[in-house]
Amino acid sequence: MNQVPYVPSSAPFSPEQRAWLNGYLTGLFADANVGDSARLAELPAVKPDPLLVMYGSQTGTAEQLARRFATDAEKRGFAPRVFELNAFASVDFAKENRLIIVTSTWGDGDPPDNAAGFWQHLNSDAAPQLDHLSYSVLALGDKTYSDFCGAGKKFDERLEQLGAKRIHPRAECDVDYETTANGWMERVWAALVKVGQASRLPENRSGDSPIQMTTEHDVASSRHEAGGTPAPRYNRANPFPARVIAHGKLNAAGSAKDTRHIGISLEGSGLTYEVGDALGVMPTNCPTLVSDILQALGCDGEEAVPDGQDCETSLRQALLTRCQITRPSIDFLQAFSERSGDAELKSLLVPARKTDLDEFLRGREVVDLLSNFPAARFEPAQFVALLRKQQPRLYSISSSPRAHPGEVHLTVAVVRYQSHGRQRKGVCSTFLADRVENKVTPVSIFVQTSHGFRLPADGDRPIILIGPGTGIAPFRAFLEERRALGATGRNWLFFGDQCRAHDFLYREELEAMLADGALTRLDTAFSRDQREKIYVQHRMLEHAREVWEWLEAGAHVYVCGDASRMAKDVDVALHEVIQKAGGRDAAQAAEYVRQLKVERRYQRDVY
Ligand SMILES: Cc1cc2nc3c(=O)[nH]c(=O)nc-3n(C[C@H](O)[C@H](O)[C@H](O)COP(=O)(O)OP(=O)(O)OC[C@H]3O[C@@H](n4cnc5c(N)ncnc54)[C@H](O)[C@@H]3O)c2cc1C
Ligand SMILES: NC(=O)c1ccc[n+]([C@@H]2O[C@H](COP(=O)([O-])OP(=O)(O)OC[C@H]3O[C@@H](n4cnc5c(N)ncnc54)[C@H](OP(=O)(O)O)[C@@H]3O)[C@@H](O)[C@H]2O)c1
Ligand SMILES: Cc1cc2nc3c(=O)[nH]c(=O)nc-3n(C[C@H](O)[C@H](O)[C@H](O)COP(=O)(O)O)c2cc1C
Fold first, then answer.
1. Above 90 in pLDDT, residue 419?
2. Are 524 and 432 in contact (CB under 8 A)?
3. Nearest listed ligand to the Cα of residue 453
4. Whole-angstrom Cα distance, residue 333 to residue 316?
5. Which atom of ligand 1 is nearest to the CA of 429?
6. Which residues in 176-186 are b (16+ Cβ under 10 Å) and which e?
7. DSSP labels for 150-186?
8. Phi-psi region of 26 (alpha: psi -120 to 50; beta: other; left: phi over 0)
9. Of the ligands numbered here, which is closest to the C-alpha atom of 415?
């Protein structure tokens, strides 16, 4: 017998919601004597199942996925709430049944900044017991890092230790995350629906729509879909072919460094950004390197290979635009070692020899392997299939849209170095520096929204900006923005680079800002102008008393630039400032910094 749907098509639900409700009600009343023509108005309302979606995200990818998941959850009849992991204090875990965590990994297997506080909490004496909680984790990472998806793994394991029930296995996404993330999202629903099914009963109808569709956090993401703000036409999956309109060197002649200021037109893109966002740039590879690889392969480049979309392209084109052809991936090395028959290469791949493998790979690229192990032969299509997909690079935006409408500016350190007898070129930085012709070459871009790196809403607040080298980028944007907004808060910049004479990036602009008051204070640390290194953190310590005064006056602290050493040392220095000038002991200083993070007064954009 055909079942007449319980929920009529006139009811104010999307087709998916209606289908879900009909399925649910059919199951619920399967044994009851309810007539086929039952109507919604006569039925008890179904209370949507609450679902907590929490994310840890440094540059917005995990956050976007978390919000997309929440939007889907609404369509499937859940009542999702979305929070960053550090907002755990707003959540009463005792009342939560379902938790989804979407998190990326930063540093060396660490949680992103907006998840670090929650990680600490889960490992403290105050960690909640979570026996009643059902959860699953979507982890984002990059296989080129040794602790792949480390943060996602840690959260997954710790939640289990605290008694929570893993209802669906963790997914681990590499940089090309879409397929794995979508697969996990498709499969996790069945497990989520089962949670608490036995105890789930309809409540009395209140007269309102039975499905509470939105919460405060969800409104923004739903509005995006529903047409409040149109979803951007251009994004990571569909970048905009922009044109470079300005390009200049920021280092003077004689510098050991090569940093470029690059202006890109957004005309015709519909793309918008806020200061603190990053720009994604999809590069093409260096044609000379492609020719060297073709030569080592014994190919002329005209060989047909799959283009990844059910069509064919030439081998040369695939190597230029689609493939990552510099750093070899582990999968590539594995296949390569088998084909080369080289015993030493093969033995480097056993987990116990990880350090030796890292040492072997330092400064070695795909082209070196092909030249050094000529016994390894590949069919063109096999070779392309072994290479990873080219990935976009992110750059902190160095302009304010109010100061430069229709444009976006970048501050790019060009990567060039010598290794194993070859001159190496960073793919994207040399693409922008050497291979893009102003106003001619299309540059594929998208805006990577960052919700975690933002100016204080209150323009009266003081801000302390710590940005050596290219770390200056977002702070140029912040200062332009505060000036354009007429913000009255004090602005203090710590900038450093190798040498004052050659490497004082944006010197004229910064000095003009000092003169007109847009910049209250500028402290510089030129590391190589004297025998001992002087870095920005040394300047912070020299001026510890004033830094402390600014902190006590409510200053927000921002750090941008090198993650591997600078950001860690600046963090140590901030703790020292609080101890030295604030009269706190080490534990109190750590608590002070923790509180700064909770209040979003200590934000970092580090890479
Ligand atoms: C959120 C975010 C913001 C960023 N903002 C900026 C910014 O504002 N400005 C900026 O310039 N960059 C920024 N970056 C870095 C940028 O994304 C790229 O990583 C950088 O430009 C290098 O990319 P590339 O393609 O030129 O080099 P790649 O081809 O990716 O090569 C870089 C790799 O080369 C290797 N390498 C480099 N030097 C050496 C050496 N001496 N010896 C051996 N190996 C070496 C290292 O393995 C390194 O990872 C940012 C990154 C992130 C994640
Ligand atoms: N591999 C390379 O040869 C190379 C070269 C430049 C940049 N990079 C990388 O490229 C990216 C961008 O570089 P960038 O132009 O922004 O400059 P950067 O290399 O971060 O240097 C900017 C300034 O920071 C100093 N610095 C070095 N270590 C520091 C520390 N622990 N704490 C504080 N300051 C420190 C540098 O001094 P000193 O350099 O005098 O120590 C320099 O004066 C960074 O991620 C960096 O790692 C690589
Ligand atoms: C400085 C830096 C460090 C990273 N460290 C790791 C790591 O240790 N392990 C890993 O799997 N991925 C690592 N990643 C990759 C990120 O997790 C990955 O790019 C992720 O998609 C970023 O997501 P987000 O935008 O939500 O922060 C690192 C990326 C950067 C730029």
1. yes
2. no
3. 1
4. 21
5. 26
6. ebeebbeebbe
7. HHHHHHHHHHHHTT-EE-SPPEEE-SS-HHHHHHHHH
8. alpha
9. 1
Q: How far apart, in whole angstroms, are the C-alpha atoms of residue 306 and residue 259?
A: 37
Compute φ and ψ for 606, nearest 5 degrees: -125, 150
Strand 463-466 relative to strand 443-448, pairing: unpaired
Best residue for ligand 1 mutational test, from 57, 415, 435 (most atoms within 8 Å of Cβ): 415
Q: What is the tens place of the pLDDT at every residue in 370-402?
A: 999 999 999 999 999 999 999 999 999 999 999
Q: At what angle do helices 113-122 and 150-161 cross, to 10 degrees?
A: 30
In 204-239, which ranges are E strands?
Answer: none
Q: Which residues pair with 328 in a beta bridge?
A: none
CA of 44 from ligand 3 middle (Å) equals: 47
**Polymer length of the chain:** 607
> 265: which 2 tokens?
């037109």
Averaged pLDDT score across all residues of the chain = 89
Note the pLDDT tens digit of each residue in 541-596.
999 999 999 999 999 999 999 999 999 999 999 999 999 999 999 999 999 999 99
Q: What is the crossing angle of helices 566-582 and 586-598, to 10°? A: 120
- 29-79 residue pLDDT tens: 444 444 444 454 555 566 789 999 999 999 889 999 999 999 999 999 999
Which pairs with CB-CB distance under 8 Å and at least 24 residues apart come from 479-485?
479/513, 479/518, 479/519, 480/275, 480/399, 480/400, 480/402, 480/403, 480/404, 481/275, 481/400, 481/402, 481/403, 481/455, 482/455, 482/518, 483/403, 483/513, 483/518, 484/400, 484/402, 484/403, 485/402, 485/459
Contact of 492 with 463, CB cutoff 8 Å: yes
H or E element: which one contains 242?
A: strand 240-249
CA of 326 to the centre of ligand 1 (A): 13
The atom number, within ligand 1, closest to the CA of 430 reads: 26
3-state class of 62 per DSSP?
A: helix
Residue 252 DSSP class: P
CA-angle at 147, arms to 330 and 107, nearest 5°: 120
Local structure of 245: helix, strand or coil = strand
What kind and span of H or E run contains 463?
A: strand 463-466
Question: What span, in angstroms and rounded, lies between the C-alpha atoms of 521 and 548?
Answer: 15
Query: What residues contact residue 378 under an 8 Å CB cut-off, 6+ apart?
Result: 297, 339, 386
